[in-house]
Amino acid sequence: DSKTKNELVNEVLETVELEAIKDSMVGLPGISGLSTEQRKRLTIAVELVANPSIIFMDEPTTGLDARAAAIVMRAVKNVAETGRTVVCTIHQP
Protein backbone atom coordinates (compact mmCIF):
# COMPACT_ATOMS: atom_id res chain seq x y z
CA ASP A 1 0.00 0.00 0.00
CA SER A 2 0.96 3.65 -0.42
CA LYS A 3 1.81 4.25 3.24
CA THR A 4 4.15 1.24 3.34
CA LYS A 5 5.90 2.41 0.15
CA ASN A 6 6.39 5.89 1.59
CA GLU A 7 7.74 4.43 4.82
CA LEU A 8 10.24 2.30 2.86
CA VAL A 9 11.36 5.29 0.78
CA ASN A 10 11.82 7.42 3.91
CA GLU A 11 13.76 4.61 5.60
CA VAL A 12 16.05 4.30 2.56
CA LEU A 13 16.60 8.07 2.42
CA GLU A 14 17.56 8.03 6.09
CA THR A 15 19.89 5.04 5.60
CA VAL A 16 21.85 6.77 2.82
CA GLU A 17 21.59 10.16 4.56
CA LEU A 18 19.65 11.93 1.81
CA GLU A 19 16.52 12.91 3.76
CA ALA A 20 17.60 16.57 3.96
CA ILE A 21 17.57 16.88 0.15
CA LYS A 22 14.71 14.53 -0.70
CA ASP A 23 12.87 17.14 -2.77
CA SER A 24 15.92 18.30 -4.76
CA MET A 25 16.39 17.96 -8.50
CA VAL A 26 19.17 15.61 -9.58
CA GLY A 27 20.39 18.10 -12.22
CA LEU A 28 23.76 18.22 -13.90
CA PRO A 29 26.92 17.59 -11.84
CA GLY A 30 28.71 20.82 -10.95
CA ILE A 31 26.03 23.03 -12.47
CA SER A 32 22.89 22.44 -10.44
CA GLY A 33 21.20 19.80 -8.38
CA LEU A 34 22.97 17.04 -6.50
CA SER A 35 26.73 16.76 -6.07
CA THR A 36 28.60 13.73 -7.43
CA GLU A 37 28.74 12.18 -3.96
CA GLN A 38 25.00 12.72 -3.45
CA ARG A 39 24.33 11.15 -6.85
CA LYS A 40 26.35 8.07 -5.82
CA ARG A 41 24.24 7.75 -2.65
CA LEU A 42 21.08 8.26 -4.72
CA THR A 43 22.12 5.38 -6.98
CA ILE A 44 22.45 3.18 -3.89
CA ALA A 45 19.04 4.37 -2.66
CA VAL A 46 17.37 3.54 -5.98
CA GLU A 47 18.57 -0.05 -5.62
CA LEU A 48 17.50 -0.25 -1.97
CA VAL A 49 13.86 0.62 -2.64
CA ALA A 50 13.54 -2.81 -4.27
CA ASN A 51 14.36 -4.10 -0.75
CA PRO A 52 17.09 -6.59 -1.75
CA SER A 53 18.65 -8.90 0.85
CA ILE A 54 22.03 -8.55 -0.89
CA ILE A 55 23.51 -5.61 -2.76
CA PHE A 56 26.60 -5.58 -4.99
CA MET A 57 28.55 -2.34 -5.46
CA ASP A 58 31.40 -1.97 -7.93
CA GLU A 59 33.69 0.89 -6.91
CA PRO A 60 31.08 3.23 -5.39
CA THR A 61 33.82 5.75 -4.48
CA THR A 62 35.34 6.12 -7.96
CA GLY A 63 35.80 9.77 -8.92
CA LEU A 64 35.30 11.09 -5.39
CA ASP A 65 37.70 12.97 -3.13
CA ALA A 66 38.52 11.54 0.31
CA ARG A 67 35.74 13.43 2.10
CA ALA A 68 33.04 12.45 -0.39
CA ALA A 69 34.29 8.84 -0.46
CA ALA A 70 34.04 8.70 3.34
CA ILE A 71 30.43 9.92 3.18
CA VAL A 72 29.53 7.29 0.57
CA MET A 73 31.23 4.55 2.58
CA ARG A 74 29.34 5.67 5.69
CA ALA A 75 26.14 5.19 3.69
CA VAL A 76 27.36 1.72 2.63
CA LYS A 77 28.03 0.91 6.30
CA ASN A 78 24.51 2.10 7.18
CA VAL A 79 23.12 -0.25 4.52
CA ALA A 80 25.04 -3.19 6.01
CA GLU A 81 23.72 -2.30 9.47
CA THR A 82 20.15 -2.82 8.21
CA GLY A 83 20.92 -6.54 7.94
CA ARG A 84 21.50 -6.61 4.21
CA THR A 85 24.55 -8.35 2.81
CA VAL A 86 26.83 -5.86 1.04
CA VAL A 87 29.52 -6.95 -1.43
CA CYS A 88 31.67 -3.99 -2.41
CA THR A 89 34.90 -3.49 -4.37
CA ILE A 90 36.96 -0.34 -3.83
CA HIS A 91 40.45 0.83 -4.74
CA GLN A 92 40.61 3.44 -2.00
CA PRO A 93 40.77 2.86 1.75
UniProtKB/TrEMBL annotation:
Any one GO molecular function term: ATP binding
Domain ABC transporter, first and last residues per copy: 5-62
Pfam families assigned to the protein according to its UniProt record, in alphabetical order: ABC_tran (PF00005)
Superkingdom as given in the UniProt entry: Eukaryota
Protein name per its UniProtKB record: ABC transporter G family member 41
